[in-house]
Every structure is written in structure tokens, then in C-alpha cells.
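Researcher: Excuse me, C-alpha cells okay?
***
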Amino acid sequence: MTATRFFLLLLTLTTAFLLFLDRPVFPTPAASLNNTLHLIPAVPQRQSVHGYDRAAFGDWAPTLIDGHSCTTRDLILSHTYQTPVDRSCEVSPTPVTDPYTGSPLTEEVQIDHIFPLRAAWDLGAHSWSAEQRHRFANDPLNLVAVSAAANQEKSDALPSQWQPALRTRCWYARRLAHVAAIYGLPLPRDDIAAMRLACYGEHLFRPLTLER
């Protein structure tokens, strides 16, 4: 088995492992960005594909959190605030930092898709099955709680057009690349260049770690 195949298998198995846990662990894509980018096809540019509809990716998926029947959205909020959910799947907010802005995360919180759904549609998800699109839209690897303002500012932009606060840009680039590699999505060359710049000087090899 080649090193590239082994690395992609490791990413895939990590994602599959999450499906069997009552309270999933959240992988931190700490592997070198360069290693992950080797798995991702580069394309000249993003071409808009007609027919995008948010409904094509389905609703929030049901999931168990501490024995309660909730949704993926509730799961991300519970993980963000590091607090349990109640029977109604409500989460009590605690002081946390918005990873996109570096400012305190207020109650005006939205769940963002790190690899935007519209961008995924343009870059290949338009040809996926409904089941695969639904899985992509509900994958915790691709979800993060951020301020509503930051989410709306980002919209469906990729890294050449939008990036978060300076201190989290490399984290964001690695996370987006991790998602792209697992789902076989290509990235435009300008976005790859922006991601490399965001992680300029990172260590060549880093272990894949997990955070709860």
C-alpha cells in the first residue's frame, strides 16, 4: 500500500469511527496540509453548476447525544460549549471564542459548513447521490459553530476569497483540505495557493490527533 493510500484510508476510517459513538469525538485534522493536498485534485477554477438548492443536501440528521435523540446541529453546539444537552436538546451557552473572528461567540450562533455546500455542488457534489450529499452536510468534520455575521460574510466562498482570523487560518485550511480529501472534491489552484500561504512554515509531519 502506498503512503498516499494509507493516509487517505486513515482519514476515511476516522470518519467512519465517529458513526458508532453515542457522543462522537471530533477529529482535529492536524496532519500536514501539504500531505493532505497531495490527495486533492487541483482544477483551474471553480465553475458554477446550475441547479443548486440547499434542499438537495437534506435536513439536519438525527443523532444520539448522551442518550437523547437530537440532531447534528445540537451535537455541534454541545461540543462547542462543552455542555450536555437536556431532554429538549437545548444547550446552555458558555464563554467560548468564535474560531472565525477571534471574538467571543454570542448567542447569535449559526452552524457553518467549512467546505461550503454551494462550492461542493460546483466542484462535484451535483453528481452525488442524495444520501452522499446528506452525509456530507451532516459530517462533524465539516461543521463549526460561528457567529451569524461571520457565517453570512463567508457565504459560499473558498479560501482565495475568504479566510478567518489570522491565528486560525491554518486550522481552517487543514480542516477544509481534510474534508475535500475524504469526499474526493477537487480545489481550484488559487484556493490551494491561499491555503498553502495560510500554513506557511508548518511542520512537515504532524500526527492525527483527536479532541473531545
